[in-house]
Task: structure prediction
Amino acid sequence: MRVIMTCGGTGGHIYPAVAIADEIKRREPDSDILFVGSQIGLEKDLVPKSGYEIRFITAGWLDRKNIIKNVKLPLTLMEGNRQSKEILKDFRPDVVIGTGGYASVPVMKAAQKMGIPTYIHEQNAVAGMANKMLERRAEKLFLGFAEASGDFKHPEKHIVAGNPVRHEFVDTGRKAAREALGFGDEDFVILAFGGSQGAGRINRAMMKVIERFNGDDGVRVCLATGSYYYEAIKSEFADKGTVPADNIMILEYIHDMAKYLAASDLVISRSGALTVAEVTACGRPAIFIPSPMVTGNHQYFNAKVVADRGGAVVIEEKDLDNDGLVGEIERLKGDPAALEDMAAGSLSCSPADATKIICDSIMG
Result:
């Protein structure tokens, strides 16, 4: 089977594509899989690290904040379309699977015009504009959240699959993860991160959390700041005269997220579709702080799906109070029964069969 996976931008689009590709290779080891993306997205690094070949096209997006930047957009899109056609003619895929990101649009559109079967995966609880546009000529549209179906026009094509996660998020056990990370069995482990790029507001709130639990032998706090914020956070602690104790881990980026999630008791994070999928696959209670800077406020709706099943607390950024966050953590830490109920609610949202459902439909 010859497959083109097209995705781009953030890990939220890329890792689901990798999970699907891995399952295709597991089923048919002789399959030839090519990724297509943009050199200005994370795919340029993440895809090769996952063991797949990637080719690049010129891609762009509509900038609603600075209209002047859109002057060259038509030429950019034309070039991306031309490059997409060349790649499709050269590789001759049996199917093209798009998991989102602006780089996927010209590839998917070109494939549809050439009569190549296309499949779409929509990760969020609120549908993206590109996938709405591509739905009509797609074979199937896989939904990360059933709630997104109402945003589309062809429900007969919809399959509620969940969001694909890599197998290690399901397979990694708590005990083994804690041993590998040097955490004690009785430690209360708080894991905080803001996605692949980091989140300044979460970092600021977590500084208060770190100050509260700094030196507490019964608590571990792991904060992944994102590369943009890492040095600034370290400098701010230094300016305050705060020296993080041994129970505090301030990291630039977490490369082995499955292990950290498996080891955690409570997760504090944004609620992008991939993050929600990974957190729930591990059955972890969460405090979700949705980013307000996304189209359609889709992170709020992603988080609400889990909260409605009892698996998460949702704090909108406009309501985030640093002392209040500390108080919420202390409340949950002091109520093991509530955390256990949240863990069950989180796991009930788990997309454990997502890759199977998707590949069953595509591969037959």
Q: What stands out?
A: The radius of gyration is 21 Å.
